């Protein structure tokens, strides 16, 4: 299955606790918790461009599987990381945050980010 497509956030778990743990200010957490984000993924072979639009904030990351890339975190910080792929799953570690994005079926992406004991889960559906 290909990741390419546009996905809308359908549900999320532990948003506030996770955002607090990564140091996002309460004001931004309150603003962001009810905004539906749109993720657009372009996949060309092992190269990806991921654009996540949440309200007026746009986060764009481009990377090639298995190669070091500069990736922007949720807090806006740029970090060097290597995204690995295992079939329909993309995995990356960003400053202690383990991120796993899985294409669970042709229309659903589940992204799980773990920091310490806090697991933030996002479920998005293809639009």
Automatic annotation (TrEMBL):
Residues of the Cytosolic fatty-acid binding proteins domain: 5-22
Single annotated GO MF: fatty acid binding
Keyword field: Cytoplasm, Lipid-binding, Transport
Annotated GO CC locations: cytoplasm
Subcellular location: Cytoplasm
Matching CDD domains: FABP1
Gene Ontology biological-process entries: fatty acid transport
Pfam families, per database record: Lipocalin_7
Main location: cytoplasm
Domain of life the protein comes from: Eukaryota
The record's note on its domains: Forms a beta-barrel structure that accommodates hydrophobic ligands in its interior.
Role description: Binds free fatty acids and their coenzyme A derivatives, bilirubin, and some other small molecules in the cytoplasm. Involved in intracellular lipid transport.
Family: Belongs to the calycin superfamily. Fatty-acid binding protein (FABP) family.
PANTHER family according to UniProt: FATTY ACID BINDING PROTEIN (PTHR11955)
Protein name: Fatty acid-binding protein, liver
Source organism: Merluccius polli (Benguela hake)
């Amino acid at each position: 299955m290909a990741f390419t497509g546009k996905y809308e956030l359908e549900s999320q778990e532990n948003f506030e606790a996770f955002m607090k743990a990564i140091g996002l200010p309460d004001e931004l957490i309150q603003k962001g918790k009810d905004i539906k984000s749109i993720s657009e993924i372009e996949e060309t072979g092992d190269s990806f461009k991921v654009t996540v639009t949440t309200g007026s904030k746009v986060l764009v990351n481009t990377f090639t599987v298995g190669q070091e890339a500069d990736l922007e975190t949720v807090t806006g910080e740029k970090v060097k990381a290597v995204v690995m792929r295992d079939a329909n799953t993309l995995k990356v570690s960003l400053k202690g945050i383990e991120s796993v994005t899985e294409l669970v079926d042709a229309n659903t992406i589940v992204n799980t980010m773990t920091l310490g004991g806090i697991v933030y889960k996002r479920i998005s559906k293809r639009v």
